Amino acid sequence: MMTEKVRLEVLTTPSNRDGVRRQIEKTIETNRNKFDFIMKQVPHMESAIEALNDGHGDFLAMSAHQWKNLDHEGLSIIGVLPRREPTWVIVSEDKPEYLQSKAIVVCDHMLLRRQMRRLRADLKLMTSQAFADSIGKGDIFANLDEENRVPWLEELRQDGALDGYIVDRGEHGALRYKARRHTLGLQRDNPERTHFVPPPLHGFTLLVARNGFPSASVQPMCDNGAYIAHRMEVAFLASIPEELHPITGIFVEQRKIAAILREANRSKDEHTLESVLGVDNRIKVAGQRLEMRIETLNHQGTVTAGAERVCPVEESHMGMVSVLREFQILLELMQSEHEEIPRLHIGLPEDFTDARPALLDLSEHHSDSSEEE
User: How far apart are CA 187 and CA 193, in angstroms?
Assistant: First the structure.
C-alpha cells in the first residue's frame, strides 16, 4: 500500500547570492519522492515573512545572517539543511602563496584582510571602493547594484587591473562564468600552512516556519549536526563584544571521531589526542565530536589569539564555555601592558624585566596606506 506523501508549501525568494536559493531547489529536487512540494516565489524576504505569518505557506529558507537580522516573533527554526562549505575563496590565477609580490587583492571583509596579511604581508590589500577609486572608477563602482559589484571586479581581474579578490562562496557561485578559485581553508591536513577560521554563520540554510509547525515532518531533509553548529556559532557570537564581531573567526562543526584522530595523528596534535583517548589509548567517550575554533588577530596579521577544543556533542555547552574562557583570558593577557619588574631573575636575560607594550593591538591602523580598513 502506498503511503500518501506529505504536502509542503515552500516560499522562496530570488537569489541573494548566498547559496540558499540554489540549495533549497536542490533539496526539493532530491526529496520529491518523500514530499509533495509546492513552491511559491515571493519578491523578497519581507513579503515572504508576511505570507508565512498569513498562512500562505508552510516554511521558507533563509541564511543565518537574514535570520539574525529578523524580527523572530511568531517564527522558529524548524531545521537546518546540511551545511555548505563556510570557508571563503580567493579568485585568482595563482594560489595565494604563489601570487607575485605587491599583487593587488581586493577584499571587503576586515577579518579576511587580516588573515591574508598573516599569510602574505607583501600583498596590496584594498577594499572594493578603495580599488575603484585608485583606478579612477570610484563613482562607477559606487553606483553599481550590489549584485553587479563582484562581476565588475571579475571583468577587471580578467583585464589585468587586479590580481585577485576574496569573496564568500555564494558570491563566487553567483558569477555567470566560473572563475578560478582557491579555498582559504582550515588546513586541517596541513597544519604548517596558514589557516583561515571563517567569519561565523556562513554556509547555513535555515528552514523557518510559524511557531507550532510540526518540525518532525521536515527532518528527513535536515541535518542535526548543522542545527547544533548554527546554535553554537550564534551563542559564541553573542558572548563576545560587538567590536570584535568584524575581526573574529568562529567555526563549529560536528565530526566523526575517526577523522579527528586521523588528523591529530598526522599533525602530532597531542592536545586533541589526549582529549579523545584515555591512558590505554582507547576512545574515552564514543560518538560524534564537536570541533570549535575561535580566533582574532591584529591589523598586520602578525599576532593571533585563538582557542580551539574538541568535545563530545552532549558536552557542547561546557565545551563552549571553556573555549570562551580560554579566549577571553588570552585576549586580556595579550592586550595588557607589562610593567617593569624591579627584581632581576637569575638565569633570564636582562631585558626580561623591562617594561613592554601590549602584545596584541586589535585597533585599525590607517598609517600603512589610505586604502586599507
Answer: 6
CA distance 220 to 198: 28
Domains of the chain, each with CATH number or no CATH:
6-81+203-222 (3.40.190.10), 88-184 (3.40.190), 224-365 (no CATH)
Q: Spell out where 97-246 has E strands.
A: 104-107, 124-126, 164-167, 181-184, 205-210
- Cα radius of gyration rounded to whole Å, the chain: 24
Residue 324 burial (10 A CB sphere; 0-12, 13-18, 19+): middle
- Are 284 and 318 contacting, i.e. CB atoms less than 8 angstroms apart? no
pLDDT digits (tens, 9 = 90+) for 128-143: 999 999 999 999 999 9
Query: 3-state DSSP helix/strand/coil percent for the chain, to nearest 5?
Result: 40, 20, 40
Signed CA dihedral, 246, 249, 250, 254: sign only: positive
Question: What DSSP state is assigned to residue 213?
Answer: -
pTM of structure: 0.89
The helices-and-strands tally (H runs, E runs) of the chain is 12, 13
Planar angle of CA 316, 66, 42, nearest 5 degrees:
135
* Confidence at 370, pLDDT banded by 50, 70, 90: very low
CA angle 302, 130, 176 (to 5 degrees): 100
Q: In the structure grid, which three cell numbers stand for residue 317, read together? A: 555547552
**What residues have CB less than 8 Å from 285, skipping those under 6 apart?**
312
**pLDDT at position 364:** 79
Whole-Å CA distances, 257 to 195, 269, 336? 21, 14, 38
The Cα–Cα gap between 16 and 116 comes to 26
Residue 140 burial (CB count, 10 A) = 11
